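Section handout 9: paired folding examples.
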Amino acid sequence: MNQRYREILALAVPSIVSNITVPLLGLADLMVVGHIGNENYIGAIAVGSMIFNIIYWVLGFLRMGTSGMTSQAYGAEAWDEALRILVRALVIGLGMGLLFIVAQRPIEWAMLRAMSTPASSVSLVQSYFRIAIWGAPAMLGLYGLMGWFIGMQNTKVPMLTAIVQNIVNIGASLFFVFVLGWRIEGVAMGTLIAQWAGFLMAAAVLYGGLRRQYFFEGRAEISWTLLRSTLTYLEAWKRFFVVNRDIFLRTLCLVAVNLFFTSAGGRQGAMMLAVNTLLMTMFTLFSYFMDGFAYAGEALSGKLYGANDGQGLRKMVRSLFVIGLWTVVVFTLVYAVGGLDFLRLLTDEERVVLASRPYLIWGCLIPVSGVAAFIFDGIFIGLTETKGMLVSSAVAMACFFVFYFLAWPYMGNNALWIAFLMFLGIRGLLQFVWFRKRGDWKL
């Protein structure tokens, strides 16, 4: 294995581990409430978790934008600029988190209605939301920290932070619920403490590393002058917001497609909703792996671009796609051979598994349809070519809706899945065209 592949895997593997631990936070909450009450508690956790998932997913630009700009500063050995990017990310993340706390009541009102929360679960969701919302500054501040660490070619800190968060969340939730008897309030408090534990851990690692100059190959002088220039340099703030604006709008396109996909399945009845939910786990599992390589692409493409190493950038992109090709082959074979067995691991309802059989082919095509979009997302973030991400996502979203509404009367649920695969494939194809057309990446 040559140096390029080792470098990619060194960054990707910790990120894959981090991604796999993420759903454990929600699973731990669900496990606890499953033993303390009726279906209203389970529904309340589902709605409460979804509210925060949507909020934090839409604001994921804080991590991605920070990662891309930081990796470029790292490649250029512009250590003072790397520190300025960190300060901007923390100011925005913590500031937005505090804003969410101040505006929590109107947010709660709007989200409860947007989620069509059952009346029997409203008070429970409110209890969960009003505690967990105090973790918003920690989560959004952590986005900035994680993006900065990835940009500095360090994915081990995000991995360890995710693991610590899960351990703290499970331990705290069990203590508050089963020892103190706090019920859903205990679950929310466990999540809150885990979020702040993750943020404080990452901040402590950052502080220790900065004191020892651990993150820099050269010297970066941390001073009030640097901090003051960071807060007052308007051009840099403008670029920061332009990059993040594009990522934010691109994320809205992804959210719109995913929410509509779920809603369209639900309108077909409980059975088809269950079928689509099961098959979508095949996309989720694939995305955990590909996001790891996307993070590696962010860090490495930004570093090489910042270092003006066009030849290295070309080789890195080719290496990412070679790894992506092998990942597609493995996942496609596993899904094709063991797809039904995989679904049976998720449910013991044989009726749902059998109802999924006609649509299993679409799950098997997810890897080949989505691989380019995942890899190019990482590359474009590293290059801060966020306009290309936005344009490709917007066009792909439009194609998704046009095809679905035209084909639905004739193809039913198959139209929904084909539209989703088109959305993934068109994103990757347009990003490839954009990348080739913009051949001025100092290549």
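Moving on to protein 2 of 2.
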Amino acid sequence: MRENHPFGLQTLPFGSFAGPDGRPRVGVAIGDHILDLTAAWPALSGSDDGLFAAGTLDRFLAAGPECWARVRQLLTHWLGEVSERGRVATFLSLASAHTMLLPFEVADYVDFYASEHHAANLGRMFRPGSEPLTPNWKHMPIGYHGRAGTVVVSGTPIVRPRGQRRTADGDIQVGPSTRLDIEAELGFVVGVPSTMGTPVPLSRFDRHVFGVCLLNDWSARDIQAWEYVPLGPFLGKSFATSISPWIVPLAALEHARVAPPPRSPRPVEYLDDTGEAPWGLDIRLEVRLNGTKVSEPPFAEMYWTPAQQLAHMTVNGAGLRTGDLFASGTISGPTPESRGSLIELTWNGEHPLRVESGERTFLADGDEVVITATAPGPYGTTIGLGEVAGTVVASPESKSLDDSAAPAHSTSRR
């Protein structure tokens, strides 16, 4: 393994891959290899608890923080000690030889809207001359409940969605979206459930959340613009959400924790983290469109932290389930080069991006979007989050679309 590999001992992310027989197996990434934990766990630990036998992370996620810490400690020992290499080698194989799978069963999916820069950019686009943020925005993390059944693993083709959209002259058309966009985000994976009626306080965030993944919440801006009043995102969002195959434990991100930006006004009590350990995260994303880097969004700029998002998500008494996934919302920074969506990068299509494949305002069929991310680790190491990738394919009922088909009148909320 090369020095300071982002999937070194400091990271040890968990995922699921297809074994030789096609059945799912739990794996841990180490360098360019995968440790087959479904096979290695009983052999190396001597345990017959079946923790990884099903080939997904579900049972492990539900086992809780003490189990997560014990497994991480054992993995560090097995993979880091020279004396263990002989025992471990038989369970290692090149990651490139395997197909990655969705690592856990998604129970519920919630998407937030936690970047002040992103929210303000959209407010300036669509409410010029008015206050860019809505009156509630700095008082609570705004979010919506998405569709768990369309969360897919990185590499899954993204079929251009169809739906209603309104033309410039007011006609209603049904057809493929002409303003398909991305949203560069982080996803947070819940392991330990909570009881309905019992909110989860800020201090319990890492007792319930196991880890972090990369997430692209694909968005059909034209469909969304027509449908979102009065109930918010629906078909413009629910067709696909891609996540990276590797879940990085929160334990790997201790050295990436930073204070979030200053808040004004001071959040209400259940969201007030001034006396809590910080859950801002110094994670830097990179977005590439057809191989061209178009953005570097910084998660450290997010106004609301994942701990606050979880506290708000449960303050009404909603319970958590193992496999719940909640997303940060689009990650955008203060500069044009740090915006996490095409609608911002092109300012609603007014300023096309130049990429190797030509100019783009929104996504054309055949476009590939790849999002990667890194964070600082201990002793100057780098924590890698892998990548989340997806390629747009044409709607079965449409011809290939390009930017020339994109109407200039559409408006969007997110």
